Amino acid sequence: MVRRSESTEEYLEAMFKLSRTPEGITVGRLASELGVAPSSVSQMMRRLVAAGLASRDIDGHVTLTRRGRREGAVLVRRHRLSERFLVDVLALPWDKVHEEACRMEHALSPEVEARLAVTLGNPTACPHGYAIPDENGEIAEDAARPLADLQAGEGGVISCVDEAEPELLRYLSSLGLLPETRVTVESVAPFGGPQLVRVGSSQYALGREVAARVYVRS
Question: Which pTM value belongs to this model?
Fold first, then answer.
């Protein structure tokens, strides 16, 4: 993979992740994801299009080219492998590894990436539950939906959780709401009130805003 600026790599990584969501890639979503101004996103989009990494149609819809998607997948893979290393080998808490992995991913060479994967046992998901692209840039599809969308009596296994906020991760951990844990919705309060959820033998009232950041599969 061609070495690019750290800023360019951050965009490619974010675009790859957004491309896997129903809403897709937009200037507004990229600006929010990266914490930058929309004007900065528009400027970078022009550079990525010129470099053959992205395309933009007449309506302003943005997509990654095949090469851009491949490079984005590599960066996501390095990030999530780095998170696994920090948790599994260095025993860092899962709420502290996202930012550290953001720094590590830009420094990994293909050789170190490959050896890291083997050392870790070729993991398929990061500590927060998100799939790790394989060495060919392919990534498993996961038909997960927000816990907040479930009705009383419905349940599933937690697939992944929003990794961006350390405080949220610490809170979810304290409740046992971790990837691969089964959760059941006991009741749903009206008018946007909390969900009463069961985790093992415990029950918790979970606000909808929090529940919307926990994703479950059947």
Answer: 0.91
Q: How many domains does the chain have?
A: 2
Consecutive H or E run containing 172: helix 166-175
- Domain with residue 178: its CATH number is 2.30.30.90
What beta strand segments (E) does 127-181 contain?
A: 145-146, 155-161
Q: What CATH number has the domain bearing residue 39?
A: 1.10.10.10
Paired with 54 in beta bridges are: 64
Between helices 6-19 and 66-88, what is the axis angle to 10°? Answer: 100
Helices (H) and strands (E) in the chain, counts: 8, 8
Instruction: Choose one of 68, 85, 106: the last residue of a domain.
Output: 68
Q: Are 99 and 85 in contact (CB under 8 A)?
A: no
Query: What residue numbers bound the domain in which 183 lies?
Result: 145-217
Cα–Cα distance for residue pair 139/124, rounded to 1 Å: 9
Per-residue confidence (pLDDT) for residue 123, from 0 to 100: 97
Give 85-130 pLDDT, tens digit per residue.
999 999 999 999 999 999 999 999 999 999 999 999 999 999 999 9
- Check whether 142 has a pLDDT greater than 80: no
